[in-house]
Amino acid sequence: MNNRRGVLTVIGALVALAIIAPFTSSYAIILITHALIFAILAMSVDLLLGYTGLPSMGQAAYLGMGAYLTAILATQFDFGLGWSFWVVVGLGILVGAATAAFFGLFAIRATGVYFLMITLALGMCVWGLAYRWNSLTGGDNGINLPPRPQFGIALANDVTYFYLVLGFFVASLALLYVLVKSPFGRSLEGIRERELRMRLLGYNTWLHKYIAFVIAGGFGGLAGVLWAHMNGLVSPEDVILTTSVDALLMVVLGGPGTLVGGAIGAGVVVFLREYLATIVPWWQYVLGGVYILTILYLPGGLMGIPERIRRRRALSGSPEQAGKLEATSH
Amino acid sequence: MSGKTTGRFTRMSLAACLAFAVGVSTAPATAAEELRIGFLAPLTGGFAQIGKDMSNGFQLYLDEVGGNFAGAKVTFIVEDEEGKPPVGVRKAEKLIRQDKVHLFMGGLLASTGYALAPVSTRLKTVYVASIPAADDLTQRESEKYPYVVRTGWSSSQPSHPFGEWACEQGYKRIAVVAADYAFGYEVVGGFQKAFEDCGGRIIQKIWPPLGTNDFGPFIPTLKKDADAIFTLMVGPMALQFPKQLLAAGIKKPVIGGGTSYDEYVLPSMGDEVIGHVSALQYSAALDNPKNAAFVKKYREKYGKVPSYYSESNYTTAQMIHEVMKQTGGKWPGATKFIELLSKIKLDAVRGPVQLDEMRNPVQNIYIKKVEKKKMHGFAQDELWNTVIKTYPNVGQFWKYGKAEFLKQPVYSRDYPPCKYCD
């Protein structure tokens, strides 16, 4: 029952966002769109970090593959600027997943810090390609895209584009939610908790992790397609380590293993990075402070706040009530 | 974590979103005689000091005229572009949408220039490229960017006369070490074309990545039979290369693109750079009263000698002021502003400046030699970029003519091809 209520609240929040966003300023709407795209990326990281226990430090690679694919198809083949945009979305997801399928062969063998290091290195390979393969990627200049696709509706309009991105975000959230609640998602959590036991129970844990890795890559590719059209520019700076770290920190900040947490983390980080930075020059300290405080005091991320408040309340309240809360909260 | 808590928290975050949206939508109202200028410069990261030089240059001019351009009160909004093209794009969007600026300017890297130009087209806002030197902004792609004006320089502009100068010195074979990105290719490409056209040969090209600190792997591969070494360094790279070259015992003449010895980095350099020659449209050591006054004022206020980054933005401010004088302080609209700015002829700190029909400056190019001496009445011996030769009124197409020049592809890693490398 609690579960259903949570789902309803998220749906309510999204509907409210869809209604309110067009009435904000033209700058706010691109910030929200920006945050939604990164929310998709962050949720893909959450599938790995929060549900499977794999700290991926290379998620920008899949975003980069999707974005560069979109940009190259658009500039060199004039493809993806009409109805074919939907084909590009499909291809972007595929190329992200395919890259992850390739990288996964190397990365999935490792766990913990080693996994983090390998994904970091593989991610930097994609950055290296973007930076050095001048004839294809434009090197450090990156690629300027033509105006956004038009198929009956013009995505060049920022509000329209916001709705498109919101649609993809909702679809991603729903798909990932179904995934993590499925038996497959449950076994991923099992692997996170104790891989050896899962293996002894007869699960092919390597394959489970590999599939999760590929799926996360696919969502990364989707975020890349949307990101390319968001900025009208694809640059090696998008694929750089900072983007991967950002995605990881969004999840840690929001709360790993919650999906929605990644989205909230994305919102907070984008807000601090893009908006606070225009108000105060010391925004980096704020961002750093938020990260440190979250890790020190909120291991469960922002999504853990209500839980802590309830715990505290329960402790000061009657022991009987506390026991009841304890029982329902897991 | 239970769904109940999720729900409560989501409601809270929704409220936060709402508050944020309302906060953002309160944009400043448009006042009549106001000129809002958005300024992009790297204020954090490895290029932060250059960013300071850029905004200081503009600010110095603003302070001189009391923040008033012919009756228009100037609102000067600086944003941090971090030396990254995508960040530059996002900050430009912010300046245009949130602050409703009349024009935006700046950006440091050539790649940032290429990224900002489409924003100006998309949002129909004037972009004044005071620093980004990417050739094609005012060459092959200029038609795509009707709202772009350049007040700085194009990368290959100083390199063309410099190539000719190198021939005059009797250099026959030159080895190149240059930062591996578009700006490096264009500076080197222009030099190579002009130098080979007058009989010289580029015998080697080495491309260390942008931001290289250790040239150990590159210096030993320099060919021994080169007459001189041409370098193009940017930011902190400029400091390291001459030191390590000296440490390796190489005593060949060193010449380079303007950013290798610009005053941004020159005061931090040691005696190892004395005698090195570079080419640019500005030197703090220009010996004329206008520049002397500028250098003194700048140094007094900011404690350092102005670099070309400062001068370029100072002069840009002056040019915008000239336009506003013509309109009586009223914003004339983007198209008209571009038209007026294109016609400005100015006797600037760097010398006479006017724009060609593709909106790139035609200006003096100075060949400069690093010397240790006293200058502009300052007491101590310091390094200065002494001007040893002036090429007056150099345009971006040099002596090749516009039509012929535009027929060749933009200078790149592979163009002009290195015919004499082996």
Shape of chain A: globular
Low-confidence blocks of residues of chain B? 1-31
Number of domains of chain A: 2
Q: What is the CATH T-level topology of the largest domain in chain A?
A: ABC transporter involved in vitamin B12 uptake, BtuC
Describe the structure.
The complex is a heterodimer of chains A (330) and B (422). Chain A is 77% helix and 2% strand. Chain A is mostly helical and 330 residues long. In chain A, helix 3 crosses helix 10 and helix 15 packs antiparallel against helix 16. Chain A is globular, with a radius of gyration of 20 Å. The C terminus of chain A is likely disordered. Chain B is of the alpha/beta class and 422 residues long. Chain B folds into two domains: 196 residues, Response regulator (Rossmann fold, 3-Layer(aba) Sandwich), CATH 3.40.50.2300; 174 residues, Rossmann fold. Helices cover 36% and strands 21% of the residues of chain B. Chain B has eleven helices and 15 strands. In chain B, strands 7, 8, 9, 10, 11, 12, 13, 14 and 15 form a nine-stranded mixed beta sheet that branches. In chain B, strands 2-3-1-4-5-6 form a six-stranded mixed beta sheet, sandwiched between helices. The longest helix of chain B is centred in the first third of the chain and has 23 residues. Chains A and B meet through helix 1, helix 2, helix 13 and helix 15 of A and helix 1, helix 3 and helix 4 of B.
Compact description:
Chain A is an all-alpha fold. Chain A has helices at residues 2-20, 26-52, 60-77, 85-107, 112-132, 134-137, 158-181, 183-193, 195-200, 205-231, 236-239, 241-254, 260-279, 283-297, 305-316, 319-328; strands at 143-144, 150-151, 153-154, 233-234.
